Amino acid sequence: MAQNSQRLLTSIDLLRLQQQGDNKTRNVGSKRRFEQISSVEPRLYQHEPVPLFQRASAVALRVNKHRQPRIEPNRLKASTISDAIHSCSHADNSEAPSQKPHLSWKPSSSLNPLLNLSHSRYGLPEQLVQNLASLGIEYIYPWQSSCLLGRGLLDGDKNLVYTAPTGGGKSLVADVLMLKRVLENPRTKAILVLPYVALVQEKVNWLRRVVDGVNKDVEVSSQIPEPKRSRWPPSRSVRVAGFFGGSRSRTMWADVDIAANMLVNTAIEQCTIDDLGMVILDELHMIDDDNRGYLMELLASKVLSLERSVQIVGMSATLPVREAKHKQSKWLNAKFYESKFKPIAIDEYLVCENLIYPASTSSAFSRLPTQTSGSDSSHSTTPSRTIRASMHKELRNPVKNAVVALAVETACEGYGALIFCGSRQACQSTALLVGQAMPDCDKIALDKRQDVIDDLRSTLVGLDAVLEETIPRGVGFHRE
Predict the structure, then answer these.
(1) Pairing verdict, β 355-358 and 349-352
(2) In contact, 299 and 193? CB cutoff 8 Å
């Protein structure tokens, strides 16, 4: 007992006391009796026992607290956007952008029986039609039907170059032509050329869902010859594989029916180029790209030089009509089809000095301010909405202020905003700027954003530091 009451402090105990401010004297290395320091707080020596087993709820609570993303408080407030006050009685208020969402036009077979993919003119298997219907594609647009029923296209006798606006259904036309060729001839293979790896992976997943349970027209044992150098036995099912740089796929040319990139050289080396029946060139406008355009041109040139006929289909949303009609279509010996159909109406506006103008007034800006009179300019360039100037120094630039204000307004209405920037650094800085002005979200949305962060962190390249800051605010960016 006497020995316990005379317990001495070590230098570690003194260091703890100095950190707590209980002792200002430096006595490192010396020992003092326990009763000499009566001001020592009991918590330094009376440790609370830690249980070996704890409730799962307590552990989960600590994990969730650690998992919550760190969100800095808003530093910026987006400027408000209000309707412009027109001083002229003849101003056209119908040009003001509507806050109501546009309803998309959906095709129906009641308009035209040929809009149903189950029509006999297309010759598609019932299972394929059912798969497309389960994915939301039961009918097609009139322009798609008109394009597909062009002379020689469904039979594979004619090549095709076509252009249509984004979201108008370009890919479905090529998919129908490709699947019909592959299903009707058991030896036919098709190559789909896409510009980006992400598109290849997405397309492979889509096509595999489309051809799930779809069989070719003939019996395997009697009519399908044994594929050369194939790793698997012949099958009636349609096999889809993706090939791209960095891919670890061991699938060979003989193992697939639809390949999502360039395999012509492999087919030529294995003397199986006769199996190639169709080549689809997506984003055909990239043939003029300085970095990768020559690859697409080289592929098309090899296919055109083959002794047998291979159907070539090229499509793009941004291909100039005059160039496509007189250059690409002539080079590929293809029929040209143009569609201007947009299933969802698109309203275009111009922003200048915190003022929003209808795009129809763009010609007036080229004449201002020296070539128009005051009355004429006030009528032809009447703004429809006004963006309030920001008091934040980061948003003093009218362009940045407009971008942030429009993006935040769109997000608050429940829609997504897509912003295009001129450089990689501009993408990153704009994402940070918009994120600082985004409103707070509820816990459910925050958990979903945290899931995105966890998925990105688990990838091979890891999580970008800026994305870790912007994603909790609901903003992402892509710098490629």
Answers:
(1) antiparallel
(2) yes
Residue 413 burial (C-beta neighbours within 10 Å; 0-12, 13-18, 19+): exposed
Please give the structure tokens belonging to residue 409. 């307004």
At 22 the pLDDT is: 46
Are the C-beta atoms of residues 162 and 315 closer than 8 Å to each other? yes
CA distances from residue 130 to 208, 380, 441, 443 in whole angstroms, order as listed: 14, 52, 39, 39
Q: How many residues can be counted in the chain?
A: 480
pLDDT greater than 60 at residue 224:
no
Exposed, middle or buried: residue 311 (CB in 10 Å: 0-12, 13-18, 19+)? buried
Q: Which residues pair with 337 in a beta bridge?
A: 162
Alpha-carbon gap, residue 267 to 253, rounded angstroms = 7
Helices and strands in the chain, H and E counts:
18, 11
Residue-wise pLDDT tens digits, 244-291: 665 566 666 555 666 555 566 667 666 677 888 899 999 888 888 887
- Supply 103's token pair: 């309803």
The pLDDT of residue 68 is 55
What confidence category does residue 432 fall into, taking pLDDT thresholds of 50, 70 and 90? very high
Where is pLDDT greater, at 280 or 460? 280
Eight-state DSSP code of residue 159: E
DSSP 21-68: TS--S--TT---BGGG-TT--GGGT-PPPPPSS--HHHHHHHHHHHHS
Eight-class DSSP state of 384:
S
pLDDT at residue 20, as a whole number: 65
Torsion angles phi and psi, residue 246, rounded to 5: 85, 0
CA–CA gap between residue 180 and residue 155 (Å, rounded): 9
Q: Which residues contact 243 (CB under 8 A, 6 or more apart)?
A: 200, 249, 251, 259, 260, 261, 262, 263
For residue 72, report the phi and psi dihedrals to the nearest 5 degrees: -75, 150
Distance CA 381, CA 429 (A): 32
Sequence-ordered alpha helix ranges (H) in 211-256: 220-223
Burial class (CB in 10 A: 0-12, 13-18, 19+), 465: exposed
Q: Which residues pair with 312 in a beta bridge?
A: 279
| Predicted confidence (pLDDT) per residue in 315-367, tens digit | 998 888 777 777 888 889 999 999 988 887 778 888 888 889 888 766 665 55
Q: What is the pLDDT of residues 5-26, one digit of tens each?
A: 455 667 667 667 766 654 444 4
3-state helix, strand, coil in the chain (%, to 5): 40, 10, 50
Separation of alpha carbons 310 and 268, rounded Å? 14
